[in-house]
Every structure is written in structure tokens, then in C-alpha cells.
Amino acid sequence: FISSRGNEYFCEIDEDYLTDRFNLTGLNADVQYYQYALDLVTDVFDLDCDDDMREAIEKSARHLYGLVHARYITTTRGLAKMVPLPNPPSYALLTGHQMQLEKYKKTDFGKCPRVICGGHPLLPTGMSDNAHVQSVKLYCSKCEDLYNPKSSRHANIDGAYFGTSFTNILYQVYPALVPEKSKGRYSPKVFGFKVHASAALERWQDERRLEMVRRLKALGVNAAFPGDVDDAVVDDEMDEDDEVGYEGLGAE
């Protein structure tokens, strides 16, 4: 499973973790053919079945491995296998540390596409802990933003196989891994001269004001911005957005 193409984001789960039933609590309700799938993952499967049944069990085994993986990578051993640890606390973690150090250097999870981040390594994370909700995303700890994987094979991985807690636990347990935040920002220029910040701010304020007036008029409320917005301008803007619905003043 780990060596298959598209599964490079996963780490190998220790066998003793897989065989401890406490770590699997509650998963039997989420996985079809749970016991057969567990036997297949732990390499004790010996059921004689047809090809269709075998394929269904293998699919359940992959799903089970992913759900267990989300739990495993939040443990000490799992963190050590996902990213390199500074000064591993014990020899038991040393092998996993050395192996993943090379994996991290090669940026197997990808590099941040934001130019100012300078190719900072990404980490996989999920948007939900429930399966079949959203695919895996890549988190950059430098700009603190999320990105979609470039490969379609990786983009189809369920985000629940990494969970929402992995990156947060990682940086809380090992704060030395937290990078310096990106301070630089793109500065728009015209013929080499920076665009004045106040001009951009005024444009933004005008757009927000016009949007608010448009929403008020759509609700039948008389706009209270005297002298700021021409009704004709608002009407023209509303004609362009006839198909837009507004649920209330607090909707975004």
C-alpha cells in the first residue's frame, strides 16, 4: 500500500499499533467488512473468496488503513515518521527520524507555490475528520495557507486520512519546527513607482459601500449614505447582479 503510486503521503504504521484494539475503537462502524479488512492489513487474511469479494475487502482495508493513519500520525512515533524531529528523544525514534529527514528534504509533500515563501515544504492536512467530506489539502506553516495537491492521484486522497489535528499537534509538540512567518508582500507598481496605499484603500471602501447599498435596496431598505452613492449608479450595478440572491444583512 505504501509503495503504490499516489500513496507517497502516507507513512508506515507500526504493527503493534495496528494490533492494539484500543487504537481502533469505533472504526468498525465506519468500515465495511471490518474484521476481514483488519486481517488483510495485518497480513493474517486467509479467507477463500471470489474476486468481487476480494476487491471489496481490499477497498475496505485501504479505507481502514487511512482512518488508522489519521490517528497514528498524532502519536509520538507517527510525528517522527511524518517529519524530521530535532534531537530525537530516544533510539526507538531514530530510524524513523533518519528515514523521514530525507523524505522531508525531498519535499515529498510538495513546496509552497507562494513565491514569497521560497519553496517552503508543505504538510498534508484534512478539512474534516469525517471520511468522504473533502480531499486532502497541503498546509504551509510559513504563510499559514492551504493549497491543493498538484497530482491528481494525491488530490483524490480523503482528507480524513490525515485529519484536522496533525499539523497543529506537530507544532505544539515541537515548536522548534515552526518557521519564521512570511513578512514580505507583493507591492504593485506603475512604471517603477509604488501604487499609493490610500488609493487602494479608497477603492476598497467604495466597493464595500456600494455593495452595502445594493444589498439594502434589494431588501427594500432606504440607503442611508447621503451624497456618497448615486441611485443611478446603484441601479446600474443592481441590473448586472439581478440573479444574485441575498439572505440577509449578515450574509457574506
Description:
With 252 residues, the protein is mainly alpha-helical. The chain is 38% helix and 6% strand. It is built from 9 helices and 5 strands; from the N terminus they run H-H-H-H-H-E-E-E-H-H-E-E-H-H. It has helices at 15-18, 34-41, 51-72, 76-82, 94-105, 152-155, 166-173, 197-218, 231-240; strands spanning 123-125, 137-140, 145-147, 189-190, 193-194. The strands form 2 sheets. It has a 3-stranded antiparallel sheet, with no helix packed on it. A two-stranded antiparallel sheet has the order 4-5. Strand 2 (137-140) and strand 3 (145-147) form a beta hairpin. It is elongated.
How many helices?
9
What is the spatial order of strands in the main beta sheet?
Answer: 1-2-3
Based on secondary structure, the structural category is mainly alpha
The proportion of residues in beta strands is 5-15%
Give the total of beta strands: 5
Share of helix, binned: 25-40%
Order of helices and strands: HHHHHEEEHHEEHH
Shape: elongated
Distance between the termini: 43 Å
Can you give the mean pLDDT?
78
Main sheet record: 3 strands, antiparallel
Q: Which radius of gyration do the C-alpha atoms yield?
A: 26 Å
Which consecutive residue ranges, at least 5 long each, have pLDDT under 50?
85-102, 242-252
Short description:
The chain is mainly α and 252 residues long. Helices cover 38% and strands 6% of the residues. The protein contains nine helices and five strands; from the N terminus they run αααααβββααββαα.
SSE inventory with pairings:
Layout: H1 15-18, H2 34-41, H3 51-72, H4 76-82, H5 94-105, E1 123-125, E2 137-140, E3 145-147, H6 152-155, H7 166-173, E4 189-190, E5 193-194, H8 197-218, H9 231-240
Antiparallel strand pairs: 1-2, 2-3, 4-5
